[in-house]
Amino acid sequence: MAAAIDQLAVEVKQLTPNEFAQWNQCVDRCDDATFFHRAEWFDVISRAFRHTPYYLYTERDGEVSAILPLFHTKSVLFGNALTSVPFCVYGGAVGTNEIDRQALIHEACQIAAGLNVDVLELRNRCTPEQGWPGKELYVTFRREIDPDPDVNMKNIPRKQRAMVRKGIKLGLTAREDQHVDDMYACYAESVRNLGTPVFPKRYFAILKEVFGDDCEVLSITHDGTPVAGVMSFYFKNEVLPYYGGGVFAARKLYANDFMYWQVMENAREKGITLFDYGRSKVDSGSYRFKKHWGFEPVPLAYSYHLVKADAVPNISPNNPKYRIFVDTWRKLPVGIANRVGPWLARQLG
Q1: How far apart are alpha carbons 78 and 72 in whole angstroms?
Q2: Computed from CA positions of residues 134, 90, 181, 75, in that sequence, does the dihedral angle turn out positive or negative?
């Protein structure tokens, strides 16, 4: 493939901030593109985490024809990688023709070799790269939203449907916020309980600032007190609740089920037709939660080009290498976890 690319002399360029509009026009035209292919992530991840972007693209007839968003992340704890896209569940090279897409992958391999990374990771949603090793760790959950709310409620299995209704009866309410304060407080406590370092609050503020109305922040309250919160992304005809969690009281109030029902209802009222429940690790708690909502898992086609590494890296919390760290983190006071967590979280990717 490399020889064919050289012969055709496909020129690969790197994105600059004044070319975001042309890049996003390609995102709009390409069926395989996702919210995480949008050019704004160049700005978000650079500002929030200071990772170096390599946003590659090709052109035909004056239009961007293929794109590959990449960031270089380097960590003593979690390795050295070139990833499309860190902190995102989908990525990879997409475009209007395969020749240009392969030219981008070829260039990415060259950059990965020059950076001497362990691995080049392409977080493809649907189609793996031919001949590249993969990982059977992650799945995604996607389902259509019906225009009739009663149909959507009936599509939730009986036990989980009862939890949504209990949350309603307990007087839970959903409030859309223009700030991230309440949502972040709930989310930070929930990820501490999972043994995961929390991202800096500034990251969430940047997401809301950059994506505007395509980034919805919901706070779930009980008697006026926030008990859960979620940040969702809108893209084309899809809604993706991406960062969400609740405080200790959320479980007995059935706030998490109520929260995702409200995300679905808000999306339905806006004419959105697809609910993307996002990525989960196989057999994890979130995996089982989404299954209980009646969603079926679909394996993600993550693909890896090994540079220095001998095997696909495993930075999952289920890796015994990180088990002690996870168990210790769960016991930290929330205040300490929120101060130390952002420094560690920027290395995760």
Answers
A1: 13
A2: positive
Q: How many CA atoms does the CB half-sphere of 89 hold within 13 Å? A: 20
Render pLDDT for 96-145 as a digit per residue (tens, 0 to 9): 999 999 999 999 999 999 999 999 999 999 999 999 999 889 999 999 99
Answer yes or no: pTM beyond 0.85: yes
pLDDT of res. 198: 77
How far is CA 262 from its chain centroid?
20
- The least confident of 83-92, 193-202, 287-296, 300-309 is 193-202
| Burial of residue 255 (number of CB atoms within 10 Å: 0-12, 13-18, 19+) | buried
Helix axes 181-194, 201-211, angle to 10 degrees: 130
Region of residue 299 (phi > 0: left; psi between -120 and 50: alpha; otherwise: beta)? beta
Which are the contacts of 33, defined by CB distance < 8 A and separation ≥ 6?
26, 27, 67, 94
The model's pLDDT over 279-305, given as tens digits with 9 standing for 90+, comes to: 999 998 999 999 999 999 999 999 999
The full 3-state SS of the chain, as one line of letters, equals CHHHHHHHCCCCEECCHHHHHHHHHHHHHCCCCCHHHCCHHHHHHHHHHCCEEEEEEEEECCEEEEEEEEEEEEECCCEEEEEECCCCCCCCCEECCHHHHHHHHHHHHHHHHHHCCCEEEECCCCCCCCCCCECCCEEEEEEECCCCHHHHHHHCCHHHHHHHHHHHHCCCEEEEECCCHHHHHHHHHHHHHHCCCCCCHHHHHHHHHHHHHHEEEEEEEECCEEEEEEEEEEECCEEEEEEEEECHHHCCCCHHHHHHHHHHHHHHHCCCCEEEEEEEECCCHHHHHHHHCCCCEEECCCEEEECCCCCCCCCCCCCHHHHHHHHHHHCCCHHHHHHHHHHHHCCCC
pLDDT for residue 121: 97
